[in-house]
Write a structure and sequence with these properties.
By secondary structure, the chain is mainly beta. The chain has a single domain (3-119), classed as 3-layer Sandwich (Rieske Iron-sulfur Protein), CATH 2.102.10. It is 0% helix and 52% strand. The protein is built from no helices and nine strands. A six-stranded antiparallel beta sheet has the order 1-9-8-4-3-2, with no helix packed on it. It has a three-stranded antiparallel beta sheet with strand order 5-6-7, with no helix packed on it. It is globular and about 55 Å long. The N and C termini lie close together (6 Å). Bound molecules: FE2/S2 (inorganic) cluster. FE2/S2 (inorganic) cluster binds next to loops.
């Protein structure tokens, strides 16, 4: 598999991203808590630029011991949100929050000599 230079790894800080044009289409590369995650910038819903959307923590229900609903809060799981229709994807897996059968194509990354590459 060919490797495509993305950037100096240190130039993409936690919470930052780059969109890279490749022969396989645009790929979004995120730095999340010091780890790089790369996905096709092509939403599985209708082809929107999913990797260009906002980052937001997953919303979870608060359920008490007696099983009553107590409201909602944010979890530690980070999502990126497709700007076209709001589908949310786990930044570490690419799995859609609303339908676990939907997953954005993931690509490998490698850091060598301080440089970040996509394997695509
Ligand atoms: S194209 Fe991404 S949510 Fe519809």
């Amino acid at each position: 598999m060919p490797e495509i230079f993305v950037a100096k790894a240190g130039d993409i800080t936690d919470g930052d991203r780059r969109i890279v044009r490749t022969p396989k289409g645009e790929i979004g590369v995120f730095n999340h808590k010091g780890a790089f995650h790369a996905y096709a910038n092509n939403c599985v819903h209708s082809g929107g630029p999913a990797c260009e959307g906002i980052l937001v923590n997953k919303v979870v229900d608060i359920i008490a011991d007696d099983k009553t609903y107590q409201g909602q809060t944010f979890s530690d799981v980070m999502h990126f949100v497709c700007p076209w229709h709001g589908y949310e994807f786990d930044i570490e897996t690419g799995i859609c929050a609303g339908n676990s059968k939907l997953k954005i194509k993931k690509f490998e990354t490698v850091v060598r000599g301080g440089d970040l590459y996509l394997v695509a």
